Amino acid sequence: MGKKIISLILALAAALTLGSCAAGGGSEKVTLSIMGKQSDLNKSYMTSIFRQYEEKTGNKIEVIAYEDEEYETSAAKDFKSGKAPDIFMHFHNADLNRFDVKDNFYYLSDEKWVSDLTDGARAYCTDADGNLLGLPFWENSVSGCYYNKTLLDSLGLKPASTQAEFDVLCQALADIGYTPICWPANGCSWMPQFGLDPIFADNPELLEKLNNNEISYSDISEVRDMVKWISDAADKGWFGNDFTKIGWDGISPSIGSGDAVMTFIWDTWFDTDFEPGNKYSADDFALMPVFMNTTDGGTYEGGNLNMMMLNKNSENLKSALEFLEFCAAPENYNKAFDGISTVNCFKGQTTNIQSKIVTDAAASIAEKERVSTAATRINGYSADDVASLFNMMFDKKTDFDGCVRLMDEYRLKEAEAQAAE
Amino acid sequence: MYNKKRFGKILLPLLMCLVAIAVIAIGAFYFNYISKRIYEDSTDHLTEIYSQVNRSFGAFVDQNWGLLESWEDYISENSAASNGAVPDFIKKEQTYWGFSDFYFIAWDSSCINLDGAKSAMTLGGAAPLSEPVMSSETLADGREVIVFAVPAPHGEYNGFGYDAVAISYTNADMASSLKVDAFSGKARCFVVQSDGNVLLSTQTGGNVFGNYLVYLKAASDLDDSEFEKIQNDWQSGTSGLLNCKIGGTRYCISYQPVGYQNYIMLSTVPQSVISAGFLSVQKTTINVFIIIFLLVFAAVIVLLILRARKQSRKDKTELKYRERMFDVLSNNVDDIFIMLDSENFGVDYISPNIERLLGIPVKEARENIKVLERCAPGVEVVIPRDEFEAIPLHESRDREYEYTHQGTGERRWYRMTIYHMDIQNIKKYIVVLSDRTLERQMNQKLQEALTAARSANEAKSNFLSNMSHDIRTPMNAIVGFSVLLEKDADKPEKVREYTRKITASGHHLLSLINDVLDMSKIESGKTSLNVDCFSLPELLEELNIILMPQAKAKHQDFKMHVQGTPPEQLIGDKLRLNQILINLLSNAIKYTPDNGKIEFFVCDIPDPLKQYAKLRFVVKDNGIGMSKEFREQIFNPFSREISSVTNKIQGTGLGMAITKNLVDLMGGIIHVESEPGKGSTFTVELSFAYPEKDETESWIKQEVSRILVTDDEEEVCLNIRELMLDAGMKVEYETDGVSAVKTALEAHRKGEDFDVILLDWKMPGLDGVETARRIREQVGDEIPILVLTSYDWSDIEIEAREAGINAFMPKPFFASTFWQTIKPLFIKHAEQPEPDVADANVMEGLHFLIAEDNDLNAEILTEMLGMEGATSERAADGREAVDMFEKSEPGHFDMILMDVQMPNMNGYDATRAIRASSHPEAADIPIVAMTANTFAEDVKNALDSGMNGHLSKPLNMTTAREMIGRFTNKNSAPNQSDEKGDK
Q: What is the rounded average pLDDT of the residues A300-327?
C-alpha cells in the first residue's frame, strides 16, 4: 500500500532576500516537487540542501516521499497518471525503462556543473548513449580488494598490480598458510559483479548483444575465464577451507584476525561493519583493484549513487534546472556534505570525510574504477542467482562450464519475469 | 640326492634372495650416489647460470650508466635550448635501448621527465649523487620503476635545474633481461638489496615480493641460525646456496653479490625442477638397470626354463619309460595298483591290468573308483573314505574282499593294501589289490587238510574204538559159543543152537568187514562205477524180493510206488544203485517198529533236454525218526544215534556213510527229513543215461488194445492207464473185484471183451484170485488174466493157476514187464521152460584143483566141497597150481578154485600161466577166483586175467553152487529167500 506523505516545507525566513537574489528580483516564487524514497529524502545532506535552497531562493520544496519498498511501483504509477514530480530521485541509471526516460526526463549533459563531477560519478549517471540523466548527490563509495597491508608487509610481500601478480600473491600467501581471500559465499552475492563489470563496462556492445539475446555468457570468453578462475581459486584453497559457511558476519572476524588477508568489499564497510578490537584495525588495510581474471590491471566498482532527474514536461523545468545548479555549487554541496564520510562525487568536494584507504589509492581508483555495470545493466542479472550457482560449483554439483550455462538460464528466466512485470 | 633336493628347496631360493638384496643394495647405493652427484651438478649449474645472469646484469647496469655518461655532454649543451633537441635525442635513444623514461634529477631528489611531469626519487639515499646509482623508485603516479642515475654537470631543462640524469625501466622490462629459460622456466630471479628489499624480479607479470628476507623468514622453514647466516652473507656480499621449504615446496636458493652497491643476485628454483634432470637420469638409469636386470633375469629364467624343459623332457621320457615299464609289469602281474588323491579321492593312476583282472575298463575306473563296488557284491563301500583318512601317514591297512570279474563272472579274492603316502608333500593313498585266490585256496586246502587230518585221526580213533567194540562183539559170540560147542559136542540140540549162533555172528562180522572195506574203498577213491544197461523194473522186483520178507517178518506195510513214467531201461551201475536203495530200505525196515509202514516211491523228474533220465527215489517210513543233531551227522561214518531203541538194533554205523558216498559217486544228491517219533524220509535223486531204444515187438501191441485194470488203490489204476496211454492202449479200471467181474461180463456180452485183465492180488472183498475165478466162470478162458502183486506169489501160484490166472506181474507196474509177461500168452508155439534143477547137487562127483596158501582156508574148502560130494587137490601157491594143472591128465580136474593173494605166484598170474600153457584144457577149464578181495575191481581183474568167475570169501555155498553149476553145465536155480549177489 502506498502511502503518500506530502510535506510542505515553507521557507519562512528571509523570503524577500532570497526572492530578490534567485529570481532576478520580483519574480514569482515556485514550489518544486521532489519524489523519492522516504529514507533517502531524510538524509541529512538532502534536508540540508533543501533548506539552503529554500532559504536562498524563497522557493519551496515539496517532498513526495514513498516507503522504500513501494517506491519504484508507486512512482511509475504517478508518472503514468500524470502526477510526475518536477524532480525525481532514482538510484543508478538502470531499470528506468518503466519511466520512459526519453519522454519524461531532461538530459543534463550540457549543464555547466557537469565538469565538476568526478569521472566515476558522471559515468554512473550517464546512459548508454552518453546522456547525463541526473545530478549525482549522494554518499559515494568504492568497491575493490581491501587487503591487510600490515600483514603483507610483515611477510615481505607487496600488493598486486596485475592479475599475474595477484595470482602469485595468493599462492605465496597460501603457501605460508594464510587464506588469501575472504570469499563469504554464504548469503553474500556482490563479489561476482566486480569481475563482470570490466567485461561489459569496457565492451558495451557485448552488453547490448547479451541483453538482446544475441549471445550468452558462454559465448563470452572473459565470463568463462572469470568463472574458471573462481573455481580454480576455490580448489587451490585461496578462499580458505570453510568459506561456503562464511557470511556477512564472518567477514570481519576473518580479515580482522589476519586469517584472511584480502576481501572484495567497499570502503564504507570499514566504517559501518568492521568490528573494532580485532588484531587488525581498519588502519591496517589498504586498497588494490579486484582481480578476477577479467582484466589484467584489475578493477574498482564505483558506488551506487542517488541522482536527481528532471521532469522535462514539468512547467517548473527552468526552476528545477536552477535547483540542480544550486545543488552543484561547491559552497552549497560542501555545506551539505560537511562531515559526511563519502568518496567525492564533485571534484570540488572538500568538507566531506574521505577514507584514508581510498585516498591512498586515489590514483589507482581514478585509473581503474568502473561503473557498476553487471548488476545494473544486464537484463535479468540476479546477484543472488549467480552466488547460488557459484555455490553449486563450489560444492562440485556442477563444473565451471555447467555453472556458466546455468548463469545464462537463470538470467533469461529472470529477464522474462522482469519483462512480464 | 637328498642334498641336491635340499639345495633345490632351500639354498637356491636363499641364494636368489641374497642376490636380489645385493642387487637392491647396490642399486640403492648407486642411485643415492648418482642423485647426490646430479644434485651437486645441478646446484653448481644453477650457481653458474646465475653467475652468468649476474654478469649480464652487471653489463646491463654498466651499459645504462655508460649511456647516461655518454649522453651527458650532448644534454648539457642542449638542455637549455627549447628547440626540442634533447627530447628528440632521448626519445631516439629510448626507442633503441628500450628504457621507459628519462629524468632530470635535482640535488634534492626531485625530478622531472622529458614531458615535465614532476616526481621525486629516493636514489637509495645517495642524493645528491656523486656516483652512479641504481634504485627502485615509486613515482608520483604510483608506478614502480628501476632507475639508473648518474651525476651530471648542473644544467637546466625546461627551467628545472638538475644535477643528475637517469633512465628508468619497469620491472617487466628488467625481468626480461634476467629471464632464464633453464629449469623449465620455473626459476625466479631477484635483485635485492642486502636488507632484502627487492629491486626487481623476474616474476611473471610483476613482482609481489617487497622484501625477500622478510618473506623467507615468514614463509620458509629456515631456522634462526640459517637465517642469520643468510643475513650475514648478504651484508658481507658473500655468495651462498641454501635449501629450504616454502609452502610445501622445497626450493634451492642461490645468491651472489651483483658487485654494485650492496645488491644481491638471488635465484630460486624448486628442487623438484632441479631434480627433474636427476629424476630423468635416475628414471633412465633405473629403466636401463631394470631392463638389464630383466634381461639378465629373463636370460636366467630362459636358461632355467630350458634346463627345466630338458629335465622335464628327460623326466617325461623317464616317466614314460617307467610308466610303460610299470604298465608292462602290472599287465603281467596279478596286482592292481591305484593311486588316489587324499583330498578328493580322484584317481591319479590306475594300472591297466584292472581290465584284465576285474573286467573294469581303465577309463571307467579312472573316472570313478567306486566302480570297484560293482565287483564286490555284498561289500557296501570298497573305498571307505573314513577308514582311509584314519590311516596315519606312512602306515598301511589291509582289507580282503572277494571280487567278481565283470566280464567272466569269475570270483577271486583280492587283498586291498592301502598305503598312506607323502609324495612330494602331497598326501596320496596307494592302493594295491593283490590276487590272493591261490593263497586263499591253498590255505583253505591246508585248513581242510588239517581238518581232514584231525578228522582222520579222530576217525581212526573212533574207528578203532568202534571196530574194537563191533568186532569183539560177534567174535566174543563166536569164541564163546565155540567153547560151549566143544563142551556140549555130544548134545546135538546144543550143537545146532551154538552153530546157528556162531554162523549168525560170523555173518554179522562178515557184513561188518564188508562195510568197513567198502567204506575204505570209497574213501580212498578207489571205487569205480560198473556202468551198464539195466532194467528198472527188474531192479525194483529184486528189491521187492529181498526186502518184502524182512518187512513181512515185522508185519510192516511195505509198499512200492511208481509215479510218472520213469524209463524202464537205464544205463548206470545197477549194483551200486541196488546197494543204495537196499541200505535205505533195510534201514527203514530196521528202524520202523512192528506193524509200521514203509513206502518206496520211484518217480521221474522231467528233464527238458531229454538227455538224462532223472529219477527220484523216496524212502518214507513212520519209524522212530531221528533227532536234528543226529540228522546233521547221519552220513558220517560210524554215526549211530544213541537211544534205548537203537541200542537194541544191530548196525555198523557205516551204511548211510556208504550210501552218501555212493550217491556222490554217481553225481546225485541225497537228503533226509526226519523227526523223532514221526519217521524219516530219505530222498535220492540220480541221473542215468538212456540206452538205445529197444522197441517192443509191434505185433504184440496189435493184439492188445483194451485192458481192464482192477486195484483197490485208484492211484495205481490211474498210473497204469497213464503208462499205457503212450502205447495207444485203452485202459478201463475198477477198484474192487465185484465191479471188475461185472465190467468184464458186460464187455463180454457186448462182444467187446477186454484183451487183457489185470487184477490186484490183495483187495478188500474179492481178492484177485477169486475175482479171476469168477471172471473165468462167466467170461471163459480166452481172456488172459494177470495178477499184479508186490508179494511173493509162490505160495498161491497153484491156486491162482487153478482159478484161471495166466501169469503174475510184480508191482510196481511197468509197461515193459507187462509186454514181456503177456508175450508168451499170445505165442501159440511157445517153448516149454526147462525143468527146474534147483534142487540138483551140481558139485556131486566133480574134482577141483584148489589153489590156496592158507592151510585153514584150504581145509574148510576141502571139507565143504566134500560135503557137496566133490573131491579136490590142493596147491599151496600159484606156481604149484600151474604145475599140477600142466601135469594133470585132461579131464582130471573139472574146475580150478584160485585164491588171488598167494606167495611165489598170485592167482592172476597163475591163471594167465594156465591159459597160456600147452595143456589141452588150458583154454576151457573153468577157473573161478576165490578171494577175500571182493570189490568190483577185483572181479574185473579176475576176469581180465582169464578167470571165468569170482567167489568171495568166506564162501557162500549157495552162490558157489549156482556158479559152479553154470560153468559145469549143471544149473542151479536161485532160491529167492537167499541173498542175491556175491558180496
A: 92
Closest among A65, A85, A61, A83 to A10, alpha carbons compared: A61
pLDDT tens by residue, B157-189? 888 889 999 999 887 777 776 766 667 777 888
CB contact under 8 A, A168 and B205: yes
Give CATH superfamily name and number for A143-302+379-420.
Periplasmic binding protein-like II (3.40.190.10)
**Which of B142, B204, B218 has its CB closest to that of A164?**
B204
> How would you class A263 by CB atoms within 10 Å of its CB: exposed for 0-12, middle for 13-18, buried for 19 or more?
buried
- Report whether CATH 3.30.43.10 matches the domain B698-826: no
Interchain CB distance below 8 Å, B214 and A155: yes
What are the distances in angstroms from CA B69 to CA A5, B76, B258?
77, 11, 21
Peptide bond into A192 cis (omega under 30): no
Instruction: Give the pLDDT confidence score for residue B52 in this predicted structure.
Output: 79
> Does the interface predicted TM-score (ipTM) exceed 0.85?
no
| DSSP string computed for B35-91 | HHHHHHHHHHHHHHHHHHHHHHHHHHHHHHHHHHHHHHHHHHHHTT-SSSHHHHHHH
Residue B141: closest CA among chain A residues belongs to which residue?
A363
Does residue B259 carry a pLDDT above 70? yes
Which helix (H) or strand (E) segment holds residue B216: the answer is helix B212-219
Q: What local confidence, expressed as pLDDT, does residue B284 receive?
A: 75
Q: Which residue has the higher pLDDT, B936 or B318?
A: B318
The strand ranges marked E within A116-210 are: 135-136, 142-148, 179-182
The ranges assigned to domains in chain A are 5-140+304-359, 143-302+379-420
Contact state of A156 with B214 under an 8 Å Cβ cutoff: yes
Q: Which residues of A touch B (CB under 8 A)?
A: 152-169, 171-172, 174-177, 296, 363-364
pLDDT band with cut points at 50, 70 and 90 for residue A14: very low
Position B343 scores a pLDDT of 82
B210 to A156: CB separation less than 8 angstroms, yes or no: yes
Q: Are strands B133-138 and B895-898 parallel, antiparallel or unpaired?
A: unpaired
For residue B567, report the phi and psi dihedrals to the nearest 5 degrees.
-65, 145
**Grid coordinates in use for A241?**
577451507
CATH 3.40.190.10 correct for A5-140+304-359: yes
- Residues 6+ positions from B406 with CB-CB distance below 8 Å: B358, B359, B360, B374, B375
Whether B214 has its CB under 8 Å from any CB of chain A: the answer is yes
pLDDT of residue B814: 81
The string of pLDDT tens digits covering residues B894-919 is 999 999 888 889 999 999 999 999 99
B890 cis-preceded (ω within 30 degrees of 0): no
Phi and psi torsions of B754, nearest 5°: -70, 150
Looking at the complex, report in whole angstroms how far the Cα of residue B248 sits from the nearest Cα belonging to chain A.
Answer: 7
* Cβ-nearest to A160 among B208, B219, B248: B208
pLDDT of residue A7: 37
- Show Cβ contacts of residue B386 under 8 Å, excluding neighbours closer than 6 positions: none
Phi and psi at residue B312, to the nearest 5°: -65, -45
Strand partners for A63: A7, A34
* Segment B442-472, tens digit of pLDDT: 888 888 888 777 766 776 676 676 666 667 7
